[in-house]
Amino acid sequence: MPPFNGQSDQEIMKKVRLGTVSFDDRIWSSISDRAKDFISKLLTYKQEDRPTAEEALKHPWLTELASLQIDETLTLSVLDNMKDFRVDQTLKQATYAFIASQLLTKQERDNLARVFRTFDKNGDGKLDMDEVKTGYIDHYGKILSDEDVEKMFNAVDTDRSGYIDYSEFVVAAMNERQLTSNDKLQAAFKMFDKDGSGIISADEIRDVLTFGGTSTLSASAVDQIIK
């Protein structure tokens, strides 16, 4: 609900143009004062008075949420899974990515999102090498060497961007047995088996791996995977 009340679209747009913000509507009654203050600051009418993105990220409403309490056992499990993560086949990688993005339960997604946010110190939605090393030190102590952490980082960073984005994190953080349960594998099989024949053809594999022709994989690389 936008914080601009009015009896008509014209009245609402007039208040938008004037920069008149109101939280009088009952839908805002359950929203915290700090959240309202955050929204108000983002809607500051004069650009020169409006907080920058960097300043907005330091608002108490966000910094309090960033310091979420997480299950330490879950975090250690995530770190173990990331340390042991290996995907040396593109077909396996594509299958895992589909399962992680489409078939996780809400609780699984929420748990992983909380762990990711505790690692993502600058809140940019991706993990750099220093953030991953800090995560291991914070939760593991100095058990892993820098070399081992870098080896893990490079295994998880499958697109070689120099960062671990959220989708790569989820694939690596999930326990392999959870990812490859019967129901999840059956759903992934159906993703490849586009014609529902019960058999995955070379063309169907090629279609999924090239994502409609937009993949960075060469045709010869896809052909090699199929073979």
Could you give a quick summary of the protein structure above?
By secondary structure, the chain is mainly alpha-helical.
Describe the structure.
It is a single chain. With 227 residues, the chain is mainly α. The protein has 3 domains: 9-66, no CATH class; 72-182, Recoverin, domain 1, CATH 1.10.238.10; 193-226, no CATH class. Helices cover 59% and strands 2% of the residues. The protein contains 14 helices and 2 strands, in the order αααααααβααβααααα. It has helices at residues 9-18, 33-42, 53-56, 60-66, 72-84, 90-102, 106-119, 129-140, 146-156, 166-173, 176-179, 182-192, 202-210, 219-226; strands at 126-127, 164-165. The protein has a two-stranded antiparallel ribbon. Helix 7 crosses helix 10 and helix 8 (129-140) packs across helix 9. It is extended, with a radius of gyration of 23 Å. It starts with 8 loop residues before the first helix and ends with a helix. Residues 212-217 have low confidence and may be disordered.
Task: Write a concise keyword list for the protein shown above.
2 strands; 3 domains; two-stranded antiparallel ribbon; 2% strand; extended; 227 residues; 14 helices; Recoverin, domain 1
User: How many DSSP H or I helices?
Assistant: 14
Overall 3D shape: extended
Name the strands of the widest sheet in spatial order: 1-2
End-to-end C-alpha gap: 54 Å
Number of domains: 3
The CATH fourth-level homologous superfamily of the largest domain: EF-hand
The profile of the biggest β sheet is: 2 strands, antiparallel
CATH class of the largest domain: Mainly Alpha
Ranges where pLDDT stays below 50 over 5 or more residues in a row are 212-217
Element order: H for helix, E for strand: HHHHHHHEHHEHHHHH
- What is the average of the pLDDT values? 79
Oligomer: single chain
Helix content: 55-70%
Alpha-beta content class: mainly alpha
Strand content: under 5%
Q: Can you tell me the CATH topology of the largest domain? A: Recoverin, domain 1
The number of strands is 2
Radius of gyration: 23 Å
